[in-house]
Amino acid sequence: MSEHILVAGASGLVGFAAMKHFAERGYKVTALSRRKPFETFGAQHISLDLTDRAACADVMSGMKDVTRLVYAALYEKPGLMPGWLEADQIETNQRMLENLFDPLEEAAKGLRHVSVLQGTKAYGAHVRRIPTPARENRDELKSQSNFYWEQEDYIRAKQEGQAWSWSIFRPQIIFGFSLGAAMNLIPAIGVYGALLKEEGAPLHYPGGPASVLEAVDADLLAGAIAWAGESGAGANEIFNVTNGDVFNWQNLWPAIADALGMEAGKDVPMALGQTMPERAADWDRLRKTHNLVSPELQAFVGESFHYADFTMAYGADRETPAALVSTIKLRQAGFHDVIDTEEMFRKYFRLFQEKKLLPPR
């Protein structure tokens, strides 16, 4: 049977990487998102609002030959973090999955695999100190309301007695290529650095005390998603995913500065989510100066300045606990790809520069 990959959320970090991964390898790919991705790599793009149940039913009726679904769609509220605890954010994310999957299941009788995304909020990383390292099926915080549990219960129930399998992935902090994403720190740091550079300043570190973190390259995650759809070891399993190393922002900061053609500066705590939106006009002038193709500030960075404040522990008065997860289960199942996190940063800043989305180094 020929493969037809359906990617929901194709303009986001994970969806874009998955679309690229499959399309570049010659698969038939249909990409769904409200906004058209920056590139489609030969995939067919359909503009679709997943909160519109009738529109989803209409589009899914034509997806009879879909064999794999990569569900990477996500609804986040303005300001980002407060919404993680709010009931309407949970309900919207659950409704989006149902709106797509109910009619897809009816149409795609040859469906073989479904990939769904969670994250370390499954372990309560946003509300507590998590076990170190957090392990799948042992350290979840299911007492904390989270759309992860709603979506997981839904997929598990739908799969009973069916021929298709599912895999759930819990990546750490994801870095990759997307514009306007809720949680992509590459454009957020890139804009912050570009404005400082234009002023002749070094790249000051805007966050708080150091903490040990893990990252995952969106391209690596896309590889894991592809592997799970092809390997029996990935069927009906949950996997943590990381690059394979650890980092803290302060130690990486000189490499990030170098990738932007800057010197690393001092620790200068700054609430990027509050201060950077006020510099939209400065970004517009910089775009014009460097003849960039990147859009205006909100469309480029999305809610990611708020995410930078969260991940860099802005406002914390002491070192935050390490939020580390075990990836032993994924390695033992057969997926072994890794990437050096410093090289990952350099790769993506270079890509944004080459695409004229950020000023040249």
Q: Which descriptor suits the 3D outline?
A: globular
In the predicted model, the low-confidence regions spanning at least 5 consecutive residues are none
Oligomer: single chain
Largest sheet: 7 strands, parallel
Structural class computed from helices and strand pairing:
alpha/beta
Distance between the termini: 46 Å
Number of helices: 13
Rg estimate, integer Å: 20 Å
- The helical percent reads 25-40%
N-to-C series of helices and strands: EHEEHEHEHEEHEEHEHEHHHHHH
The percent range for strand residues is 5-15%
Roughly what is the average pLDDT, rounded to an integer?
Answer: 94
Largest sheet, spatial ordering of strands: 3-2-1-4-5-6-10
Tally of DSSP β-strands: 11
Topology, element by element:
Elements: E1 4-8, H1 13-24, E2 28-33, E3 44-47, H2 53-60, E4 68-71, H3 87-107, E5 113-117, H4 147-159, E6 165-171, E7 173-175, H5 185-198, E8 203-205, E9 215-217, H6 218-230, E10 237-241, H7 249-259, E11 264-267, H8 272-275, H9 280-290, H10 297-301, H11 304-311, H12 328-333, H13 341-354
Parallel strand pairs: 1-2, 1-4, 2-3, 4-5, 5-6, 6-10, 7-9, 8-11
Helix pairs in contact: 1-6, 2-3, 3-4, 5-11, 7-13
